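Notes, Module 5: Reading structure tokens.

Key idea: the token line is not a picture. It is a compressed description, and you learn to read it the same way you learned to read a sequence, by spotting repeated patterns. We will look at two proteins. The first is printed below with its tokens.
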Amino acid sequence: MARRRRIKPTEHENLERWLVSYADFITLLFAFFVVMYAISSVNEGKYRVLSRTLVEAFDQGPGDAPIEVGDPTREALPFPAEAGSVRASKPLSTRDETRTGDAESALDTRLPAIEERLREALQGFVDRDLVEIANHGDWISVDIKSRMLFRTGSAVLSLEALAVLDKVARILAPDDHEIQVEGHTDNVPIRTRQYPSNWELSAARAASVVHFLAGKGIAPARMAAIGYGEYRPIADNATTEGRQKNRRVSLVILGRGVDPARVAAP
């Protein structure tokens, strides 16, 4: 007698399973908006108390006792006696001021030695009126004529310029004074695709010198490239000789603590 095969009942697919995921999503979305609302809400009572406390504190006279805000177990910091004044957390003592002044003076006294070394290294170029070195007390300027640095309308350093700048870099690299490299031109306009005006040309020339000095070991953080165009002349642009003097690159070695704005004017 043949056995009958048991037929398993067909399972019906649950077409409503998506409701579980949808319910979870709605729950998370609701929780998200509740948290956002809680964060954005401001306790007006606490805000008014804080505002009133601050107003009372700043309206006090010099003789009034300060109001402590925050943890009462902590030591209260007194408000300044005069409105708008700020008390430093750690005032600089007289000894610290003396040390700072001595350090700056010691660094400034190195400027004459740097000037002497520059004059010895560049004396040949000074004699040919290609380089001019001047000591202004708090800074030293080294003016290099552009005719020995670049071709007309170019910011590519010449071979003679590399020789001069290499001597300068050997002297300034071990030092830590800040250096401003300033590019200057005459008032003859230039309108090329690369340099639409003397601004771009003077800035590009200063940047070329900065890149070379950085490659010779001078820390880039010590240097700044500035393009003045024709707006810092040292001679009259009405003459050929004056325009030649105005076309230059100036290396300004700043004394420690000297504001660069002091050397902006010629």
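Here is the second protein, with the sequence above and the tokens below, as before.
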Amino acid sequence: MPTCPLRIGVIGLGLMGSVLVRRLLDAGFAVQAHDIDPAKCGAAVAMGAVAAKPAQMAHDCDPIVLALFDTDQVEATVAALASFGRALTVICTSTCDPDRIAVLAAGCTPLRFLEAPVSGTSDQVRRGQGVALLGGDAALVADAAPVLDALFASRHLVGGSGDGGRAKLAVNLVLGLNRLALAEGLVLAERLGLDPAGFLPVLRASAAYSQVMDTKGPKMVTGDFTPQGKIIQSAKDFALILELADRVGQSLPAARLNLSILAGCIEAGEGESDNAAVVAELRRLRRG
């Protein structure tokens, strides 16, 4: 625990951002927190953080952690922080367009930008199981190590700015398709007369096992879609995955199918639900 607590800023207090605040506080850091939603700021204050605007953070904090929804929000926030003229470190945990992030990192002087998208649900990060996929300078990673250690169980420096996002989106492609495959298997088992709750342990013990069965299987079986990773976030990521694939001339038919299932969930009003709710859309696709 730091003897003189560093002041860390966190901008964006959704599912992931609020967990990052909690982990930083538990590690002994002083935390300033900001979100456009006053209720989310209040929840962070109740945990022990101090509510602060970005201008105050730019004066008080180093580093500042971003946990924002998309690339547009990250670009706007980084531009605002850069305008204050202080050479501080920004650690971006958001899943963004990696090409735009590479441009942003190269041009955000005087800031030092470290890309750190997270593999793992907010609950996994809360429990100390999050993995950071870093893109940036190795020296900056070393400087930020105490904060990264507090936030994540492990980290991988996969390359320069943009490469963290490229790795994260490739991981999310596999993860999202695993969720869809699990949901299809559970729905088929149910239609064939098997008890999904009884079938899930069979899946876990089989050659088909994936970690998704542990994180999302119980949610799919019980219908508890309290969010740990939202449908709208998965849809945003898969739209970006397909956009990047188009840029490099790669067809991803399974990814397109998954995005259509996510779109069905959003149309059904489940955008804010956990991404395990893909099982609900598959149940609605019953023929006859």
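Summary for the second protein:
- The longest helix spans residues 163-191.
- The first strand starts at residue 7 and ends at 11.
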